[in-house]
Amino acid sequence: MNKIGVLLAETNQNLLEELKKEVQNEPNLYLIDIVKNGKECIERIEKSQFIDILFIDLVLPIKDGFEVLKEIRNKYNNKVNKIIVSSAFINDDILSYMNDMSIDLFVMKPYTTSSLINKLKIVSKEKNKRLYTIGINEDSDESKEEMFRNKLIQDINSILHEVGIPAHIKG
């Protein structure tokens, strides 16, 4: 059985370390590379023959996830098989854009890395069918307090975004 190659495009170092460990511990997955901005992501795709799964955050420096997705669909669609997008905020415009870009999975932050890896394996097995899902914590054992806290964080991130503060600046 061939291993599934994963390219990670994310700026959160702690999350990257967790994802890297999870991918490396999965016998059917291998890590192609980790990139921390949209420009590096496109450069890595250009150099690659094929990427099974791209996991990309929408909030990336230099080129954001929206620009990267558009460029992939316009120039490199034959190099990237599946795309999983992650974000801490969502609205109707973002949902519409994700649908237009034929995203395989949309993941709301926060999420557990083990849940993400499970979803990643499911997406990798899909042949031609596009899978479009919002959220990923349906199989977790979060308490009501944790769910409330996560929803509150999402709401705060949405408000920050609406007033023009980038989601990665929370200090």
Tell me about this structure.
With 171 residues, the protein is an alpha/beta fold. Helix content is 44%, strand content 19%. The longest helix is centred in the last third of the chain and has 19 residues, at 144-162. It is globular, with a radius of gyration of 15 Å.
Q: How many independent structural domains?
A: 1
The CATH architecture classification is 3-Layer(aba) Sandwich
Strand adjacency order, main sheet: 2-1-3-4-5
Major sheet details: 5 strands, parallel
- Rounded to the nearest angstrom, the radius of gyration is 15 Å
Number of helices: 6
Q: Overall mean pLDDT score? A: 79
Strand content: 15-25%
Précis, in short:
The protein is α/β, with parallel strands linked by helices and 171 residues long. It has helices at 13-25, 38-47, 65-75, 92-100, 113-125, 144-162, and strands at 4-9, 29-35, 51-57, 80-87, 105-108. It has a 5-stranded parallel beta sheet, sandwiched between helices.
What brief labels describe this structure?
Rossmann fold, five-stranded parallel sheet, 171 residues, 6 helices, alpha/beta
List the helices and strands and how they pair.
Blueprint: E1 4-9, H1 13-25, E2 29-35, H2 38-47, E3 51-57, H3 65-75, E4 80-87, H4 92-100, E5 105-108, H5 113-125, H6 144-162
Helix pairs in contact: 2-3
